[in-house]
Amino acid sequence: MKGRFAPSPSGRVHLGNLFSMLLAWLDARSVGGRVLLRMEDLDPERCRESYAHQLADDLRWLGLDWDEGYGIGGPAGPYRQSQRSAQYETVLGTLAERGLLYPCWCTRAERMAAGAPHPDEKRRGHACPCRSFSEAKRREMTAVRPPLWRCAVPDQIVSFTDGHYGLQSANLACDIGDPILRRSDGVFAYQLAVTADDGAMGVTRVVRGRDLLPSTPLQIWLLRQIGRPVPAYFHVPLLTMPDGRRLSKRERDLDMSALQSSYGTPQQLLGLLGWLADLLPKPEPVTLAELLNLFSWSRVPKTDVIMDKEWVDKITKRR
Ligand code: GLU
Questions:
Q1: Is residue 194 in contact with ligand 1, taking CB distance under 6 Å?
Q2: CB-ligand 1 contact for 116 (6 Å cutoff)
Q3: Is any atom of ligand 1 closer than 6 Å to the C-beta of 24?
Q4: How many CB atoms within 10 Å of residue 164?
Q5: Ligand 1 center to residue 158 CA distance, Å?
Q6: pLDDT at 119 over 90
Q7: Comparing C-alpha atoms, which of 138, 101, 132, 5 is closest to residue 62?
Q8: For residue 103, what is the enclosing H or E element?
Q9: Atom of ligand 1 at shortest distance to CA of 206?
């Protein structure tokens, strides 16, 4: 039994990231499982080593420990996606051998492909005209500019039972479309890397924000294509700003520096997180061991949690 933290070091960690990671930790530890920390730092424009370092410090401050991964090493390393190109090449090779990979010259969605999709973002891959290009046409296009690489998904329904949200299903072709697996500049895309890594690192439980629920059927299908076992998935509600907007690292919404100024100790911040997860009746200081005793998936809310405006203003002012 192995859970994971898979943050993107593209800014200081915020309350929403901590909420998901606390639940991932509680889920794993409550059944005596291991936890790994993998840095999803594929996007060279957004991710920085200093953020990764800070993120690990922030997790340690809160007491959310891990048994293998970033900063520790372990049997499935390296644990920074930016250092795993050789592994991704191999997985792409497997997909290519199965005739599932094709070059594409439609670049509109390309810039975003290295990061995980946001819920408010229309990022459907699609079966583009490039999928049916002849070899001659492909050579002609490659001479003009390098392609990005997509995976040809079948017209097939994939169903699974999410540990928190229950039965889910999606038609890969209609609801998801052909995902980008590699950008034209060579950067590997989120959907490829997350699947390759969850498979290679032996992850058996994935706990993460529900913004990734729509990507899960695709990831399950990709895992099957590359012959890796499929983990159990548990998605958790998102925390939103008072106006309903999802917390953003770039906007520095409720980030760890603001939280630490208002909540001086890990126990105080854990109290807030435990209360947001409906494990506590009010936000009072608590230890991780106490939260572990209180944890049960049946208590965790399913609807997104909207942060109170007065509270947000107070926290933000103290930053
Ligand atoms: N790296 C992704 C993010 O920070 C999470 C990916 C995942 O949990 O599958 O949004």
A1: yes
A2: yes
A3: no
A4: 20
A5: 21
A6: no
A7: 5
A8: strand 101-104
A9: 8
Mean pLDDT of 125-150: 91
Ligand 1 pocket test: which of 43, 82, 192, 194 has the largest number of ligand atoms within 8 Å of its C-beta?
Answer: 194
What contacts 73, CB < 8 A, 6 or more positions away?
Answer: 79
CA distance linking residue 312 with residue 310, whole number of Å = 5
Summarize pLDDT for 207-241 with one digit per residue, the tens: 999 999 999 999 999 999 999 999 999 999 999 99
Alpha-carbon distances, residue 199 vs 17, 52, 202, 203, 253 (angstroms): 23, 22, 6, 7, 32
- pLDDT score of 128: 80
As a whole number of angstroms, the distance between CA 262 and CA 269 comes to 9
Residue 110 burial (C-beta neighbours within 10 Å; 0-12, 13-18, 19+): middle
Alpha-carbon distance of 225 to 218, in angstroms, equals 11
- Strand intervals (E) in 6-83: 34-37, 68-69
What are the pLDDT digits (tens) for 246-267? 999 999 999 999 999 999 999 9
Coil/strand/helix, residue 85: helix
List of residues 6+ apart from 250 with CB closer than 8 A:
10, 11
User: What is the C-alpha separation between 258 and 260, in angstroms, rounded?
Assistant: 6
Per DSSP, helices labelled H in 129-251 are 135-144, 190-200, 216-225
**Any ligand 1 atom below 6 A from CB of 6:** yes
- Output 318 or 290, whichever has higher pLDDT: 290
Mean pLDDT of the chain: 95
Residue 36 Cβ < 6 Å to ligand 1: no
Q: Is the CB of 40 under 6 A from ligand 1?
A: yes
